[in-house]
Structure formats: structure tokens, C-alpha cells
Design goal:
Elements (H helix, E strand, L loop, with lengths): L11 E2 L8 H24 L3 H18 L6 E4 L7 E4 L1 H30 L5 E2 L1 H9 L3 H10 L2 H7 L5 H17 L4 H12 L6 H8 L5 E3 H15 L14 E9 L6 E10 L3
Parallel strand pairs: 1-4
Antiparallel strand pairs: 2-3, 5-7, 6-7
Helix pairs in contact: 3-7, 5-7, 7-8, 9-10
């Protein structure tokens, strides 16, 4: 980066990147595309609705467990209809972009840096930045640190970060990470919504089903959230405390009119904006 008032620039680079050839990457992508198309063809040829549903359920579990390692098959659910397998083109594009960052931008910069170094120009290694990243204990602070760097520097760092950081940064981008205040729960929810091609914003759905001022027992919250999650294909197991992801809440005791006892619950104070 250019230093104001100084007749110099700082260039950051990292050595020992894991290499994969363009041909190897091309074969991997083509294999995943073919696998996806074969799976979709098999689904379309099924006659039994129950078989189609079971296939879609299994495909959704595999997508969550493998994170699209073997194919790009996602499962969508719109308007309460049955599960529909689809080709997740966004994930394929994300992988193509990640490869471009790692293999082209990175390689070109290293080549340039080596040429500059031969001319006697002092170059700063990005090992210090990576060491700083790995010494940060909180995951949210790690994302905050990444977003404080310029885009060119982050591109050099990405190949050496854990896969989850590569995925979230590539798919969500720094502006969305900042907008969500690096909250891990919000990041995971938004990431899963995007890679699953879900058109429904889960936050808006929940906030339309509960109202500010409501006093709701924990058991009722859990039941209502489960219905909402199921309706939009959101795989998270609902908990009453999840309500705090969407609203500002406080703990209260609520009288049970049937038993006369007081049940634990929450009062909704305001909508939580992200």
C-alpha cells in the first residue's frame, strides 16, 4: 500500500501456497457439474412423490455435511411446497472465483514481487498479518481484522486461511460481513441462505410472525420457530434463545392460565436491525 508523504510503497506476499494446476481444477469442476446433472436427471425420472421427497431430503443433508465437495446439488423450498433439488450455480461461481484469486491474482503478484526484489526493492512479507490473524482468539474479531485490510491484501491472505473464512468472505463479501457486525450466527444464517439459493430472508419471516410487546413462553417460541424454519427449509434446530437473533428481548415469567404456574419466557422489546 502507498504510504502518505513517503516515497515508497509496501507490497505484501506469502510464500508456500498450495498449488493445483488449471487442468486439475478444470477436471474437478467438470466432474462436479456432471455429477450434479446426473443427480438432477435421476430425480426428474422418478415417478413416486415419496421417492422424490426422500431423494431431496438426503441431498439436502449431504449438501450440508459435505459443503458441496462432490457436486453442486442444492435443495430449495418455496412457499411451503415440497423440496426441490436445483443446480447451485452460485456455489460453482464462488469456487471459480476462489481459484482465480489463489492461482491467478496470487501467482501474478508473486511473479511481480520476485522481479521487484531482484532490483533491490525492500518487500514486506505478509507473514506478520497472518500471524496476527491466527493470534486473534475470537472468530468475529478475525473477520473484523480481515475486513480492515484492503482487498488486494486479503486476496493474498485467503489461500492460507481456514476454509470457512474463505467461503464466508468470498460469498458474503466485506460489506455484508460488516453489516452483520461479524456476528457468527448471522453470518452462518446468511451464508446458508445464499448457498442454498433460498429467496426468503429468514429474519423478515420471523419478525413478521412475532410482534414487539409480545410476552411468549420459551416452549411456544421453540414451536413457532420450528414451523417457520421448516417452512423455508432452514436446517437449524430451533431454540427459544434464537428469538434474540431477531429481536431485543428480556427474560420474564409468564403466568400459565391453565395451571396457575409461571413459565419462563421472553418479552419482545424491539426489532433487532442488522
Amino acid at each position: 500500500m502507498k504510504i502518505p508523504g513517503k516515497n515508497r510503497a509496501e507490497l505484501y506476499y506469502k510464500t508456500n501456497t498450495k498449488e493445483i494446476t488449471q487442468e486439475e481444477f478444470r477436471r474437478t469442476i467438470e466432474s462436479k457439474i456432471k455429477s450434479t446433472e446426473d443427480l438432477l436427471q435421476g430425480y426428474n425420472e422418478m415417478v413416486s412423490p415419496s421417492s422424490k421427497h426422500e431423494f431431496a431430503e438426503q441431498s439436502r443433508r449431504e449438501a450440508k455435511n459435505s459443503n458441496y465437495k462432490y457436486n453442486y446439488l442444492a435443495v430449495n423450498e418455496r412457499g411451503g411446497s415440497d423440496l426441490i433439488p436445483i443446480f447451485n450455480k452460485l456455489m460453482m461461481i464462488s469456487e471459480l472465483r476462489a481459484f482465480e484469486i489463489q492461482q491467478y491474482d496470487y501467482k501474478d503478484r508473486v511473479t511481480v514481487f520476485n522481479a521487484i526484489a531482484k532490483e533491490g526493492v525492500e518487500i514486506t512479507d505478509i507473514n506478520n498479518l497472518l500471524e496476527t490473524f491466527y493470534h486473534i482468539s475470537k472468530v468475529s474479531d478475525k473477520y473484523k481484522f480481515l475486513c480492515s485490510l484492503d482487498e488486494a491484501t486479503v486476496k493474498l491472505c485467503l489461500p492460507h486461511l481456514p476454509e470457512s473464512f474463505i467461503n464466508y468472505y468470498t460469498v458474503l463479501g466485506p460489506e455484508k460481513l460488516k453489516a452483520l457486525r461479524y456476528n457468527i450466527t448471522d453470518l452462518k444464517r446468511e451464508y446458508e441462505r445464499i448457498i442454498g439459493n433460498q429467496e426468503i430472508d429468514i429474519s423478515k419471516v420471523v419478525q413478521s410472525e412475532f410482534k414487539v410487546g409480545d410476552r411468549v413462553t420459551k416452549s411456544s417460541i421453540k414451536d413457532r420457530l420450528k414451523k417457520i424454519y421448516d417452512s423455508v427449509g432452514y436446517s437449524k434446530t430451533p431454540k427459544a434463545v434464537d428469538l434474540g437473533d431477531y429481536f431485543i428481548i428480556k427474560s420474564v415469567d409468564i403466568k400459565n392460565e391453565s395451571t396457575g404456574k409461571r413459565d419462563k419466557g421472553y418479552e419482545i422489546l424491539a426489532i433487532k436491525h442488522t
